[in-house]
Amino acid sequence: MLKIGDKEFKSRLFTGTGKFSDNATMKAALEASESELVTVALKRVDTDNEDDDILRHLGHERINLLPNTSGVRDAKEAVFVAQLAREALGTNWVKLEIHPDPKYLMPDPIETLKATEELAKLGFIVLPYIHADPVLCKRLEDAGTSAVMPLGAPIGSNRGLRTQDFLEIIVEQSNVPVVVDAGIGAPSDAAKAMELGADAVLVNTAIAVSPNPVEMGVAFKMAVEAGRMAYEAKLAQAKNFAEASSPLTGFLDEL
Known about the structure:
Radius of gyration: 20 Å
Order of helices and strands: EEEHEHEHEHEHEHEHEHH
Distance between the termini: 56 Å
Strand content: 15-25%
């Protein structure tokens, strides 16, 4: 069981809601994935409409909403959007995304730290999306973050765990849950992240743009479970030289 803030999760697969062809497909894929934490951009929510279409499709009793601040450019805008989300959706959880560069969508570490400090003081459960920067992760812990969300590769790139060396350091020294976010393009990437000791992964594009999002949701669910199981069972040590699994000598000498 994974615990973040005041909630516990059976599933360690978190999902996003962007890029699906339609809301019905999104709903079916998310239910098939059995994800219990789903991020949604506040700008996609019609806060004046109680029957907002995307919220209606996310109304499953198992699903917890994680509003994100996608589109903001600095800490001031992020805090404002988080407060709007708390009022509109009735949750103090927020995925903090501050990426002023529209081409590469790289998270701004300085503004992210400033916003985390402010939001934590305001009582938010903050999950910041960041570079795979071990020093920043420790600073965010000091600022009161509830988890860290280092990227595996640029958002939507499907390039996998390009930051693996740094993710390993983050996992080794973190005192809060580590959720690998962005870049995960295949279930094998998710399994690898879990084998490294990540507490969860967040996947969006790889499921949403699949020709069969429902089947892909199931594939990611199984990959996350397998990766976590392997981590808990402890992986065998990698070696530089061959080592036979069966004796090579002995019985021939007796002939």
